[in-house]
Amino acid sequence: MAPVTGTLVLAGTPIGDIADAPPRLAAELYERTVSSEDTRRLRGLTRALGIHTSGRVVSYFEGNESARTPELVEALVGGARVLLVTDAGMPSVSDPGYRLVAAAVEEGVRVTAVPGPSAVLTALALSGLPVDRFCFEGFLPRKAGERLGRLREVADERRTLVYFEAPHRLDDTLAAMAEVFGADRRAAVCRELTKTYEEVKRGPLADLAAWAAEGVRGEITVVVEGAPQTGPAALDAEELVRRVRVREEAGERRKEAIAAVAAEAGLPKREVFDAVVAAKNAAAQDPGKAARGPGNGKELI
Description:
The protein is an alpha/beta fold. Helices cover 40% and strands 17% of the residues. The protein has eleven helices and ten strands. The strands form two sheets. It has a five-stranded parallel beta sheet, sandwiched between helices. Strands 6-7-10-8-9 form a five-stranded mixed beta sheet, with helices on both faces. A hairpin with a 7-residue loop joins strand 8 and strand 9 (199-204). The termini are far apart. Mean pLDDT is 88; it is low at 290-301.
């Protein structure tokens, strides 16, 4: 049997409105070892919730993640229940937490969560863009060349894309997206989600870049429409007939050959069938133009 250990709890915190805090969050904060990205923000959160944390509170942020992780894992292995919170949203989603989760899993520690608000999902839902399939890209590189390179990697991605961005870099990022994805690609800039001055600005990337150039404040999430689906190249009737002929010559029955060619071309079977019939009728009216096999004189249509 696996040894009994403590539990690591990843707790989502409000991304704006404190009223969005899940009820379980207050219960977990009370008398737990709490690992917080910013202990000052944690004190503000507990005051807003009307509770106090009598357990141990330790800081856990990007600068001390590597050093602090072994200490927390040791406590978890020893039976402690550790609550991990970040400034807003879910730990480890573009925030500290991944290293601790990975190390805890490696040691066989149970990891669970108190689900909470998510800027990614909230922005997706408000964007007005397809949400059945999406991918989260986090923050783009600060340097222009690296940013363009990262965008080019997903230029053909058909899923909706979600990014976080700092307000002072938003105009450059949107301009780069317009350059790589196309000026007319639809997007939504979601600002200050769940807060008093929440705003969702929707439109083509070029228009959003021009809007952002005037200056934007607040926490930003950008949602970008995926690349348009490119259908198969249009095939004329002659090419459809040729493909059917090649399949027939290889031994397929005409019905199956027509169905296969229609599937390849993304066309109704009836359209391919009509092209074959039209070619057969044309050959009957002018035998000299009948399609023949390679050197054997056999009429294929």
